[in-house]
Amino acid sequence: MSSLDTFAAQKLASLEAKNLRRTLVDTARENSIWLVRGGRRLLSFSCNDYLNFTQDPRVQEAAIAAIRTHGVGAGASRLVTGNHPLFAALETKLAKLKDTEAACIFGSGYLANLGIISALMGRNDLVLVDELSHSCILAGAALSGGKMLTFRHNDVAHAAELLKAHRASHRHAMIATDGVFSMDGDLAPLQELGALAREYDAWLLSDDAHGIGVVGGGRGSSFARARKADVPLQMGTLSKAVGSYGGYLCASQPVIDLVKTRARTFVYSTGLPPASVAAAMAAVDLIDRDPNHAIKPLRKAKTFTARLGLPEAQSPIVPIIIGETEEALNASRMLEDEGFLVAAIRSPTVTPGTSRLRVTFTAAHPDSEIERLASIIGERILRR
Ligand SMILES: *Cc1c(COP(=O)(O)O)cnc(C)c1O
User: Fold this and answer.
1) Across 190-216, average pLDDT
2) Do 186 and 257 share a domain, yes or no?
3) Domain identity same for 165 and 190
4) Are residues 79 and 182 in the same domain?
5) Ligand 1, atom 3: nearest CA belongs to which residue?
6) Where does a domain end: 259, 289, 319?
7) N or C: less crowded end of the chain, CB within 10 Å?
8) Nearest residue CA, atom 8 of ligand 1?
9) Are 78 and 213 part of one and the same domain?
10) Contact 266 CB / ligand 1 (< 6 Å)
11) CA angle, corner 197, sides to 158 and 141, nearest 5?
């Protein structure tokens, strides 16, 4: 064996020994909540398709029409010839939804954070990151070459302490956090972080991958409280509640113009396929027009947490912390035997020792099935 293959095989074996090897399972999606795996039909509580738009005929038709008009792929980076007219239309809609001057679409949410953070921050700068932030925020901060420090989860006082100690010795500073935490489902204290950022002249970025479409009347986590939070960099994804694919940043015109000039994942990567952009546009229109639809996933999550006596859901994501990886995997298998797909989430996605079931709710989940899931989890997982 070559040293490369030996390395790969040994690394895999050591991950396997710790229950950390990951494998892909063929999963056919029958509609937005029912899946077929290994010949079995399962009700999924693991998709991020919160508003069921991946399978919505109005969204699908928009994508099909865009392929007929504009073709299948963009053909080049948007700065070369890939800038088909759908981009500007979607950017205008997103900016309106998020109440900003402008917006920029990226290839994915992951690519958005890599590009945004590394375009704005550099070697002499400070990037403060909530310790539970998504992997792509950490990757963007690392790519920027700035000094990255993590603050304890949602601990504004700790962030303030770090700024007090380190802000003065850096040119620019950024505070970056998930708006809705992807594995915990709680919200960031964006009002307080916004005030802190103003005090220290730091730039606040919130990653609203799990916020757009489902909290703040569909407008996202900056809008989750009565007063809008002051978040100059609102990024997110088009691949969760929006049901399509791609990432975005909503910000002021100068920031968007700079990002479109300097973000490497924007400049050197092909524009999104027209179908993805058109689908996202149709979905954003639907979110904008019907805030009552946007309320449904959170309402279902709250029914579930109330039923089990868990802390009230703040988003459609509800974690059930199990602890050991093996036990979380067993719990997930038991639920699969009952016809439910509820993914076990383990390290390194979450801190070791906090392996969990992550239950996500969509507008279309039948109340009777939520009740059946709650009763099984209550009897066989929580009360043991
Ligand atoms: C899913 C997710 C992303 C990545 O978005 P993609 O469009 O899937 O690349 C970024 N941030 C958070 C918090 C996420 O949950």
Assistant:
1) 98
2) yes
3) yes
4) yes
5) 109
6) 289
7) C
8) 109
9) yes
10) no
11) 75
In-domain check, residue 358: yes
Domain count, the chain: 2
* 338 part of a folded domain: yes
State which residues form the domain around 176. Answer: 58-289
Q: Give the CA dihedral 208, 222, 365, 373, nearest 10 degrees.
A: 80
In tens, the pLDDT along 322-342 reads: 999 899 999 999 999 999 999
pLDDT band at 384 (very low <50, low <70, confident <90, very high): low
Q: 19 falls in which pLDDT band (50, 70, 90)?
A: confident
Same domain? For 225 and 309 the reply is no
How many Å lie between the centroid of ligand 1 and the Cα of residue 291? 23
182 CB within 6 A, ligand 1: yes
Q: Ligand 1 pocket check: which of 181, 207, 358 to mutate, most ligand atoms within 8 Å of Cβ? A: 207
- Give me ligand 1 centre to Cα 360, in Å: 15
Distances from the Cα of 147 to the Cαs of 20, 122, 124, 179, in angstroms? 30, 9, 7, 22
Residue 239 Cβ contacting ligand 1 at under 6 Å: yes
* 174/183 Cα distance (integer angstroms): 23
Token pair listed for 215: 């909290």
Question: What's the 105 CA to ligand 1 centre distance in angstroms?
Answer: 14
User: Would you place residue 383 in the very low, low, confident or very high pLDDT band (cuts 50, 70, 90)?
Assistant: confident
**Cα-to-centroid distance, 4 and ligand 1 (Å):** 30
What is the C-alpha to C-alpha distance for residues 138 and 178, in angstroms, rounded to an integer?
A: 11
Q: Does the reported pTM lie above 0.85? A: yes
Residue 289's pLDDT is what?
94
Q: Which band of pLDDT confidence, cut at 50, 70 and 90, is reported for residue 185? A: very high
Residue 12: inside a domain, yes or no? no
Of 268, 289, 310, the last residue of a domain is: 289
Measured in Å, residue 13 CA sits from the centre of ligand 1 at 28
Q: What is the mean pLDDT of the chain?
A: 96
200 and 164, same structural domain? yes
Residue 192 has pLDDT above 90, yes or no: yes
Tell me the mean pLDDT in the region 40-55. 97
Listed in sequence order, the residues at least 6 apart from 276 whose beta carbon sits closer than 8 Å to its beta carbon are 63, 238, 244, 245, 246
DSSP run (H or E) holding 319:
strand 317-323
